[in-house]
Specification:
Layout (H helix, E strand, L loop, with lengths): L1 H7 L3 H37 L10 E10 L5 E9 L4 E8 L4 E7 L3 E5 L7 E5 L14 E8 L2 E8 L3 E6 L5 E6 L3 E10 L21 E4 L2 H4 L6 H7 L5
Parallel strand pairs: 6-12
Antiparallel strand pairs: 1-2, 1-11, 2-3, 3-4, 4-5, 5-6, 7-8, 8-9, 9-10, 10-11
């Protein structure tokens, strides 16, 4: 640097300005390098930390309020999920109407019946079993949204269902189907088990004159949704 000063005959003021400029250039370059490193590290952390939907407990009871945003239909559903015994029950209370039992087994058979004087019953055979606890595996993460007063992580699967899970407790808050049916989770009791007698279809379900047996495939149920029967049949009928 002394040679440069001698050859160019720079004044002390000019040399001071040169050194100051060189110093500032180094500061800017260092700052940009740090910021770029921070951005890259943050991006890597975000990719690593993208939340996954919580796997369902193997047994639980949940009270749901169903609101059909297209028809304004309301239902209250008691959902009993029992994976160890490969069964699922929806006790559906229609608004000012009947109470329908929907008992589903992993052998692809479902019973829809009432226990009152109407003695309704029908048996339906599907080509899929009940949902597995990890049925949301592979769902697409959409980000966060506030639903029913809760900050939720949101996923969608097959453009058929949108699933909202509380960020803090990891409990489900809401399901919304493309049909407009929205299920609001009012309670979620992990480990709750329904007594066996409630699962048993009544005698009139086995009266051949009254009971109708239907064989339904997912193509017939939801031709436009590849996961239609999987979700419809397994947890929420009549979506």
């Amino acid at each position: 640097m002394a040679n440069i000063k001698h050859k160019l005959r720079l004044s002390p003021a000019t040399m001071s300005l040169f050194y100051f400029s060189l110093f500032m250039l180094l500061v800017v370059v260092s700052g940009d390098t740090i910021r770029m490193k921070t951005i890259l590290e943050t991006s890597d952390e975000q990719l690593k930390e993208e939340p996954k939907p919580t796997i369902w407990p193997e047994q639980f009871h949940s009270v749901l309020v169903m609101n059909n945003t297209k028809t304004n239909e309301l239902q209250v559903v008691d959902l009993w999920y029992d994976w160890p015994n490969r069964r699922n029950l929806n006790l559906i209370q229609y608004q000012l109407g009947k109470k329908l039992y929907d008992v589903e087994y992993d052998n692809h058979t479902s019973y829809y019946f009432t226990r009152d004087a109407t003695r309704e019953c029908r048996t339906v055979h599907f080509d899929v079993g009940i949902l597995t606890p990890d049925w949301l595996h592979g769902a697409t993460y959409l980000g966060q949204a506030k639903v029913d007063g809760f900050l939720c992580n949101v996923w969608t699967k097959a453009d058929f269902v949108w699933y909202y899970e509380d960020v803090v407790t990891k409990r489900p808050v809401n399901w919304i189907f493309y049909t407009g049916r929205s299920f609001h989770v009012m309670s979620f009791e992990v480990g709750a088990v329904l007594q066996d007698s409630e699962w048993q279809a009544p005698v009139h379900c086995f009266d051949k004159k009254q009971n109708s047996i239907l064989g339904l495939s997912h193509q017939l149920l939801k031709p436009s949704a590849p996961m239609g029967s999987l979700i419809d049949r397994s947890v929420f009928p009549f979506v």
